[in-house]
Amino acid sequence: MKMSQLYIPTLKETPADAEVISHQLMLRAGLMRKLSSGVYTYLPLGYKVIRKFEDIVREELNKSGAQELLLPALQPAELWEESGRLQNYGPELMRLKDRHGRDFCLGPTHEEVVTDLVRDEVRSYKELPLNLYQIQTKYRDEIRPRFGVLRGREFIMKDAYSFDIDKDGLEESYQNMYNAYCRIFERCGLEFRPVEADTGTIGGDNSHEFMVLAEAGEDIVVYCEECDYAANLELAKSKLEVVKADEEAKELEIIDTPGLTTIDELVEELNIAADKMIKAVLYEVEGQGILALVRGDYEVNDIKLGNLLDVVNLEMASEELYKELNTVKGFTGAINLDDVKIIADELVMSIVNGVAGANKIDKHYVNVNPQRDFEVTEVADIREVKEGEECIHCGGKLKLTPGIEVGQVFKLETKYSEALNATFLDENGKSQVMEMGCYGIGITRTIAATIEQNHDEYGIIWPKALAPYLVEILPLGNNDDVIEKSAQIYDELTAAGIDVLLDDRKERAGVKFNDADLIGCPLRITVGARSLKEGNLEAKIRKTGEEFNINLEEYLAQIKDIIDNLS
Q1: To which H or E segment does residue 380 belong?
Q2: How far is it, in rounded angstroms, from Cα 526 to Cα 229?
Q3: Which of 11, 201, 458, 526 is most deeply buried (CB count within 10 A of its CB)?
Q4: Which Gene3D superfamilies does this one have (predicted)?
């Protein structure tokens, strides 16, 4: 493609509302433009990258035995009622009515629709297993869209759905897709980790997220330095020895703590370590108070707690509940707090002579001892793990790093097939419920994650597999020989099947160099009058910054060789 003919409006300045690198560079390099909050138009350069990634996804999924189709984005609400998700999914579900007053939604995912399709078509075990996938625009009404396409209201996603006759078949389908995902992200040259993850509103029994490691990640990946254990912080567990302090229990006492509502303030004022504090967080589930207790040097893990309570959306307690329970925010504690379910982390139970809220403003208890001074409903692991703790599998040290979720695989089992009555006749003619799995990849999110992991101060550094163009040719000046030779190189590389961008604009050399670094093609070839006289072309590898000359007599073979060795 010749740049004079390509719609690629690059920007010199970073847009003020672009917070993360991928958002900034996708706008500056002319990959996309914002239409409204969380909604973007993909320009030719950006859409070319998207199509390259989609091709990789299709190749690997087709190789795995999955079949592509296209499901409707507009979904009747009664299907979501049938599955039980219409209310549970929450306000992120884009809802609308047609002219007849019938309720619909714009699909954030397609479990209901694909299950409805299969239940009407598949009758016998001989038609299974079946794996269907699509690449389509999805919709989620994010409360605060941000970070460009990392958290948008409209995005492109690949979603696949497997149907099997039994759990062994589901396990095989799940592992097949897990392996395909690994191949996809490896081909893209990404540093990623599959991690154990929560199933969230999708549901099911087991799940793994595929995390691209990058500073802009909203998730935290917990991994072991010694073995292959990795999990999202939401689910990560660590091995900690619960040892009760060897000291005599003292008499419970109430003290004045004016304005001391945080653990840090209490530690500083009372000169008592955070691991002696009992942090209490009050939640509300269907009008019932849930008091979660963790040691003061830890945070409550909402996902672990929600899973323990079998609640998808765990909510903080309302002001009304605080009044009803006769307690005060910042001073809430388990002692004499009636009509609540108290769930304590296992580390809380080892505290001797601790500090806890007294349920009165500006008051705390000291010398608090669990079980003596209050009883708990349940003891469980409800804390977030911390870096340096021991791996539950091998005892190695755990590390924490930010990650961007680009894909997730789920074992749905019979959650949707049972609710929507997706059955088949087994070899004995008996009706059985299908076992299901679902598998998603964020297409546009992966593009952004790639940029987060591959950039420098000058612009994008595309991995070879996703680069919109592999080679960019920069003719410098208006010399006829330079223009002619640049056109010749462009034609020969194009004829050889190489994606080439020719910057034939009548711009200064500095503008061309800056735009080339911004766009980030893996190989830059500069054609200048001086180098032509010397019988050379100047080459630069974008990723390494390595610069060298290419012999003018053998440039086609040398450029092909360089491309073959790019990563």
Answers
A1: strand 378-380
A2: 47
A3: 526
A4: Anticodon-binding domain, Bira Bifunctional Protein, Domain 2
Helix (H) or strand (E) holding 213: strand 206-213
State how far the Cα of 129 lies from the Cα of 122, in Å rounded to an integer. Answer: 10
What are residue 130's phi and psi, to 5 degrees?
-140, 135
Q: What is the mean pLDDT of residues 13-37?
A: 95
**What is the residue type of 221?**
V
For β-strands 103-106 and 74-76, DSSP reports them as antiparallel
Q: What is the DSSP letter of 47?
A: H
Sequence-distant (≥ 6) Cβ neighbours of residue 286 within 8 angstroms:
none
| Predicted local confidence at residue 335, as pLDDT | 97
Integer CA distances (angstroms), 229 to 67, 87, 214, 267, in order: 32, 35, 19, 34
CB atoms within 10 A of CB 389: 16
pLDDT in tens, 242-283: 778 788 999 999 999 999 999 999 999 999 999 999 999 999
Sorted by where each starts, the structural domains of the chain and their CATH numbers stand as 13-190+414-452 (3.30.930.10), 253-380 (3.90.960.10), 469-564 (3.40.50.800)
pTM for the structure as a whole: 0.88
Tokens of 376: 């708990």
- Listed in sequence order, the residues at least 6 apart from 190 whose beta carbon sits closer than 8 Å to its beta carbon are 212, 406, 446, 449, 450, 453, 463
DSSP reduced 3-state for 27: helix
Can you tell me the distance from the alpha carbon of 53 to that of 406, in angstroms, rounded to the nearest whole number? 12
Residue 315: strand, helix, or coil:
strand
Residue spans of beta strands (DSSP E) within 37-181: 39-42, 67-68, 74-76, 94-97, 103-106, 130-139, 154-164
